[in-house]
Amino acid sequence: MFERYQGGESAILVHINFTDDSEREALDELELLADSAGVATCAVVTSSRGAPQSKFFIGSGKVEELAGLVQMHQADVVIFNHSLSPAQERNLEREVRCRVLDRTGLILDIFAQRARTHEGKLQVELAQLRHLSTRLVRGWTHLERQKGGIGLRGPGETQLETDRRLLRERIKYIQKRLEKVSRQREQGRRARLRNDVPTLSLVGYTNAGKSTLFNRLTEAGVYVADQLFATLDPTLRRIELADVGAAILADTVGFIRHLPHDLVAAFKATLQETRDADLLLHVVDCADEEMQDNVREVDAVLEQIDASQVPVLMVYNKIDKLEQAEGRIEYDDENMPRAVWLSAQSGQGVACLFEALSQRLAGALVEHRLTLPPSAAKLRSRLYAMNGIVSEAFGDAGEYVVDIRLQKADWQRLIKQEGEQLERFISD
């Protein structure tokens, strides 16, 4: 049902430099996207405009140039580095006589190639269907004919109306399936909350090195490649942090400039891991010239998915590409880690990240020395079950002197359940 690349297709890329910064895209990013989709670029057409042209998006002269290049190179597809309306796609296809794809369609195709899990495939299909629903009329007049044949003549549903109805039904079906997946994910999140296991989520611009860092921290063996959107399906792994204990690390899909709204809506269940995290690790390619712009784009997407209020630790990756850069921790005015500089590829500075994570998460820890009488053996056993006892000694009267370290939420719950007697045992 969907237009998928089979690999080896030749493409002509079209990039327009607009005077308005909000409409501007990066040409090198389009080339990376095309390469990630398995397309061979045979020519690039560039132009400068104040605003898009309503009929073709580009000027009529550029349309003629584009048609000539398509004929010369026998190109299979023309890819625009911008969002086109259905009418503009249709008009361009008539003139250049080959398929025309915009930036959103290209990103959707890459996602379709990368999806591996059942959930990922459903999410991609939902995004494709939403995108396709506006593009059913693309110059194929047979879609507008009414059904014919014996017993089907006369007033009735046109082929286009039938396709739209089937599309709506399929979208509803996929949304129901994704709601079920979302409920299952919610159960897992509630279980982690009950156990007070902190969740860390890797976020960042696509190809910033999140999966390489994820593999370095967890030895998970997640697929890594120097291409955009190498990771699509979320992966969760357990890591151990000093003074904190177990934590869950989530590797998520990378963000990109002007991320299509259909994708954001379709991947709500996946991005929920980011919104519900205790701490976001914002991975940044510090060797990228567009570093600051990429950081702003990620912040914009985080705000779009209601995750802008989650605490953030900046992780500046790929310091091995900089001259005389060293792994280090940057601290804020309250002496808490604000950023870490490292190289996930070489491992330089990774120890600094573990140290920074321990400091950030241990801030929510409570430490006390308790003197427990022999009659409080049940409470002592419970503290051991919670992995809260750091050390233990015996007093002269046979009491237990224990040093405990617990998450603040665990400690408050313990006080609520055990009552005031627990506070009487505090001897520090």
UniProtKB/TrEMBL annotation:
SUPFAM superfamilies documented for this protein: EF-G C-terminal domain-like, P-loop containing nucleoside triphosphate hydrolases
Chief subcellular location: cytoplasm
Ranges where the Hflx-type G domain occurs: 198-365
Pfam family, one: MMR_HSR1
Compartments where located: Cytoplasm
Keywords for the protein's UniProt record, in alphabetical order: Cytoplasm, GTP-binding, Magnesium, Metal-binding, Nucleotide-binding
Superkingdom field: Bacteria
Family label: Belongs to the TRAFAC class OBG-HflX-like GTPase superfamily. HflX GTPase family.
PANTHER family from the UniProt entry: GTP-BINDING PROTEIN 6-RELATED (PTHR10229:SF0), GTP-BINDING PROTEIN HFLX (PTHR10229)
Function, as annotated: GTPase that associates with the 50S ribosomal subunit and may have a role during protein synthesis or ribosome biogenesis.
Quaternary organization: Monomer. Associates with the 50S ribosomal subunit.
Protein name: GTPase HflX
Protein species of origin: Zobellella aerophila
